[in-house]
Amino acid sequence: QSVLTQSPSASGTPGQRVTISCSGSNSNIGSTTVSWYQQLPGTAPKLLIYNSNQRPSGVPDRFSGSKFGTSASLAVSELQSEDEADYYCAAWDDSLTGWVFGGGTKLTVL
Amino acid sequence: EVQLVESGGGLVQPGGSLRLSCAASGFTFSGYEMNWVRQAPGKGLEWVSYISTSDRTVYYADSVKGRFTISRDNAKNSLYLQMNSLRVEDTAVYHCVRGGILDYWGQGTLVTVSS
Q1: ∠ CA(A45), CA(B51), CA(B5), 5° rounding?
Q2: With an 8 Å Cβ cutoff, is A44 touching chain B?
């Protein structure tokens, strides 16, 4: 059971916009920033969003993040087949004194 | 280019020990906090441990506390994870991960705990 809650799956057709949500609590998302990671099959996770809404250099602006209260979301616009991957949210938890992750959302491009 | 290369994984019996290493390059290792994050086969990500730049501060997940020890050698640009009293549920790919935002991940080393 993950500390952060994500829907296990999401899907969309090419060109669509998809949103993935992440729910936490006051000890994690509610008190700090959120990061999002993309994991393509057979590869290591890659940082997609940090500080809740910042993109590292090289990440397309089709990916955007937001946070409100104890929840966060990742939006993927202009969906492409190459976006098919697992997506994880993460945040530092002050009560557990460690990073906590969501269980992951498998994004399928139909 | 930032590179993190893990080594030291393998097959070990329950109750056994392993020491993982992570060789860092392409950045000033001593200036970054570091973490270990693991992923069991077919499962999600689980944070394991954190170490500050000077190794004065370390944190562990409850699932490994008292059994695992994180350390670093800034002179050798290396991160370590000593794993003792290994359990079947410790079976996973272990990733070395940089920084306070987990911005760069190594490809990982597989640890299999089985009799």
Answers
A1: 45
A2: yes
Give the β-pairing of B45-51 and B58-60: antiparallel
| Cross-chain CB nearest to B47 (options A44, A46, A101) | A101
Q: Which of B90, B24, B82, B89 is nearest to B58 (CA)?
A: B82
The whole-angstrom distance between B74's CA and the closest CA on chain A is: 22
Query: Would you call B95 and A44 a contact, using CB atoms and an 8 Å cutoff?
Result: yes
**Whose structure tokens read 């008292």?**
B66
Chain B residues 18-77 within an 8 A CB cutoff of chain A: 35, 37, 44-47, 50, 59-62
Amino acid symbol at B46: E
Q: What is the mean pLDDT of residues B12-31?
A: 97
pLDDT, position A106? 97
- CB-nearest partner of A104 from B37, B44, B62: B44
A44 and B106 in contact by Cβ < 8 A?
yes
* Residue type at B35 in one-letter notation: N
| A42 alpha carbon, distance to own chain's centre | 18
pLDDT tens digits, one per residue of B66-84: 999 999 999 999 999 999 9
Contacts of B73 (CB under 8 A, 6+ apart): B80
- pLDDT (tens digit, 9 = 90+) per residue, A12-48? 999 999 999 999 999 999 999 999 999 999 999 999 9
Under DSSP, the state recorded for A54 is B
